[in-house]
Structures are given as structure tokens and as C-alpha cells.
Amino acid sequence: MEIKGQIISGMGKGTYFMSQEIYIKQFQEKLHFKPYVGTLNVKLEKNRKNPLINISKEKFSLILGKGKFGDVKFIKAVLNHDTAGALVFPAKTEHTEDVLEFISNKNLRGSLKLKDGDIVSITIE
After folding, report:
1. Among residues 39, 53, 44, 48, which one has the least CA distance to residue 9?
2. 122 contacts: CB under 8 Å, gap ≥ 6
3. CA distances from 16 to 21, 60, 78 (A)
4. What's the rounded Cα separation, in Å, for the pair 41 and 81?
5. What pLDDT was estimated at residue 19?
6. Would the pLDDT of 51 be above 80?
7. pTM
8. pLDDT 10s digits, 52-80
9. Measured between alpha carbons, how far is 84 from 79 in angstroms, rounded to an integer?
10. Could you tell me the residue ranges of all domains in the chain?
């Protein structure tokens, strides 16, 4: 499944949460990489429903939260056909359903020279 969307700026909260040891350790164990502290926010095209609702729940994995840090569902994905990572779905989020959050082991904006408004594709196996 391929999803296309537009890069948008976030609220900066992904950086805070992705820097928490509770998440870092579990992502390293389950994804085999240390995630960059931040998420890449991708807004789906207008009037498009989130295609992920059609994916079986068994394909998603779970990072367990603790205390004030909520659980995070995730699914492995690839950005622009060459950057491995995952889409993350925090239980506690302020994003609308049409905004996806992608994580990787690198600063995607810097390494891929991405900026707000750029169109990207996310492929889910």
C-alpha cells in the first residue's frame, strides 16, 4: 500500500516524546534502530480517508507507555521508496486523522532536504 501526502510542520511534541527513554528502548528492540528525536508529519490529500483503517490490526505493533506517557501503535513503513522507518500512532495525540507521523533513524528533513509542502510517499509492506 502506498500513501501520498504533504510535509507539514508539527507542534514540536514529537521531539519531546521521541527523546524519552521509555520509547527509545522499545523502538530499538522492535524496529532495530534508534529513532531520531522527532517525527515527520505528513498530511494526507484533502478529502482522502486514512487508508490505514483497512489494514488488519495484527499488522500493528505496540510500544507500551508508562505513567504520563501513553502507548504508541506503529507499523513498519518506507518513505520515498528508500528510507526505512515506521508510522507511529500515539494514544495521546493532538493530530487529526489526516496527519501521519513517520519516524526513522535520521533527521529526514535534513538528510533528504525535505521542507513543508513537499509531497512524499509512504509504503507499507
Report:
1. 39
2. 2, 3, 4, 5, 42, 77, 78, 79, 87, 100, 102
3. 11, 23, 23
4. 17
5. 82
6. no
7. 0.90
8. 777 888 889 999 888 888 899 999 999 99
9. 6
10. 2-123
